[in-house]
Amino acid sequence: MIWKHCNLFIYKQLHHLIGMGGHMDRTLDRLFIIPTSWMDEEAKGVLSVVSQWAEKEILSKRLDYLTNYQTLFIEKQKKLLLDIGLQRLALNSEAGGFGWDDAVHAPGLACIISEISRADPSLGIISAMQYAALAPLMKDFGSNKKLIKQLAKAYMDNKLYAPTLILPGAGYAGEETPLFKGRSILAKAKPVKKGFVISGKDLRPATNGNKADLFCAVCSGKDSKTCIAYIPGDLDGIKRGAPIKTTGLNACTNSDISFDDVVIPKENLIAGDQAVEWLYTWFNLLSGSVSIGAALNFYEILHEWSSTRVIKGSTLFKENPLCASVLAEVSNEIALSRMLIHDLASLIAKPDHWGDTLDGTTKPYTFSQMINTRVQQGVMNAINRGMELMGSAGYAKEWHVEKLWRDVKTIQSMTCSTCADVPARMDTATYFFDCRSLGQGGAQ
Amino acid sequence: MKHFDEFSRPEEYISPMDTHLRRIIRKWADEEVIPYRREYDEDWKDHKLIHPAFDRIMGQLGIQKSLFPHECGGWNLAASDYLFRSSYLLCEEIGRADTAMAVALAVSFWPLLVILVEPYKNNRLIQEFAPMFCDTKKAVFAANAMTEPQGGSDIENLGLMKGRTIRTTARLDGDEWVINGHKLWPTNSGGVSSLFGVPCTTNPGSSDPDDFAFIYVKADAKGVTQGGPYEKAGMAADKNSDIWFEDVRVPKYYRAHGPGDDAKAFYQLIPFGQVASTAFLTGAMMNLYERLYEFASTRTYNNRLLKENDAVAAVIGRIAGDIDICRILGHEAAMMGDRRNKPYGKPVISEDVVAKIRNIKDFISDRAVENFGRAMDVLGPYGADREWDIEKHWRDIKIIQLWMGGKQLCQMEAARYFFNCETI
User: How many A×B Cβ pairs under 8 Å?
Assistant: First the structure.
């Protein structure tokens, strides 16, 4: 129980740092309900601290935050990840972390990522990557003590540490590649005496590739078998392309990455489709949670807008039946999306509550694909519809809505891997209809 | 490869100017806009990169004088039978390269249409303003200063609001109008325009169309103050800002037509604006097709070209199908405008033309927003890249769906017309 004491100590530190005796924003939680019983007291405590950080550090002074974004983004990130210590949240307690290194913490992690993202989705996605990268190392998924030790050193260091994922996606015409459920795997891992040699050209990280400290790259290994390589960003042979200008998540500058025979130790590779499915499952849960956080903040802004603006000279927006029907659609999308994400978290945390566990990682993987696709579509629709009410104010940077809109769209496209929702549909059809050739390069 | 020109439009609607004008505009777009447009977002405030391209098309190629009569040095387009269709091709071709440039250019025509198009012509004002646009090789912009802080889209909802909520006032003092008020968001504000068309009221709170006044104000008139441009999600080539009119004095004859006719002439602008909006969108969607074609023909899923996978083909096929249908509808909207002077046509301010054109704009806006978003998802992690251009269009075109009263006003206009609603 050492880690419990450790966490109690951390809470005291956290409350001291934040300087507020706090409670979470009950208004939002009462409106967009989730089963709070799925979170333990510890998770509720951490969430409370994150809520206070979000309110105090960003939401209450957003104009200043956005005006000095480049500087304050790092400053607020340091406060959250280093001072408060969330960088080590998903590390095991033996390594000095909070000990949230098992699936049972999925609901808590989803809530925390949402709350960070309510303040800024870019901060949320960076934390999401930190936690997703550790998922294949979770204690209930197989232990790789050497790699955990190596990563713990980086996560525990008093410096920001940013992993990113390189997932399979679109291939190139004329090149036959190994596949992960239809998606091309463009990185290769070749076994050598010292470990593995990683190669791949112009690979596209999910986000933040330009500054990433660690690349978790899905590779094809021996006999084209799928694996995940953990590639520290400072190794020889890593080439980062020019910064890419993107629609949103502008604080997470991306670049294409080339691995020119990069050598990693043996322990930095985790083999098997199940590990990749598990990585995707967590990526879907946490990227979905980022968009939920953005949606909750969008709701707050739209609520203020529709309660203070009039049309036709005197009628409040929200009291006009047509506008109200749009507000209902916005609420509907956010509320249902949030429930779905927490269902997914529960499925990950307590699979036995959701039927048998015979399908291993394939069931949570498939549901995570379905749910995240639906959540991204729902949140995007909510913001799109709400912007229609706000008119040009929704489009001006001043109101902040357009940033949420761009950030969520960037996340939605990123999580598609390629071809919109087609790969997720193929996964779903395969799971429910026992399709044999979909995603295997088979005939159509 | 199929060419984007092959998206359908009714051949019999095509104006005599189409081939020639399209060729000129497309050459300009391909050489002077498309190679540089990925840098436009960073140029939103200064327009150092953008402005030379405007000078070329508006001043040197002479598009800005096209509406004016021959005797003023113009092309007499405003008096032609194909005003709407020519405007459509212009807006579509420019929109393919950059919808914000298309907007800025088209909106320069907007206030001028109030005095240039039969049956509401004002020859004295045409003579007054023509040299400003026709005697220069530099781009000259104009703007309609319509939206007010408290009114949102009320000004575009003239059918119902009848100008009741307008707070910008015009008071006659001898031979001058004295204008006071505050306007928001006009395209080509933020220091860009040389001339404003300003909807005002001569009797605040009145719903009488006779009290609606459309008055021209030169941007350098004493008492006109413009704010700096707003920072927005996109549309970098289109500057918007606040404008304040404080005891601004203009000659009495700067009122477009006078009581009653000002409101009718101004109301013509709604269909013009909606048709231009559809053209911006179909132009942008044709470029979407070009870029999506390249991605779907060079990248693979399941080791097949994207376009050769049945499920992906269904997605991109739907996108192309929607573009085809939207283009037909857009040309239909333009033709409704150009039928205005024909025995079988109806005035552009008639209830059914306004409602049907708004309806088409609403439909095409929704398809555009949906298809650009979908196309970004087809590109997956590349969808948000500036390099693929689709995301820029996605950001830019969202405001087209929102402006001029947005979706809700289009829906209300359709309901009023088709269901004889009397109070909405």
Answer: 194
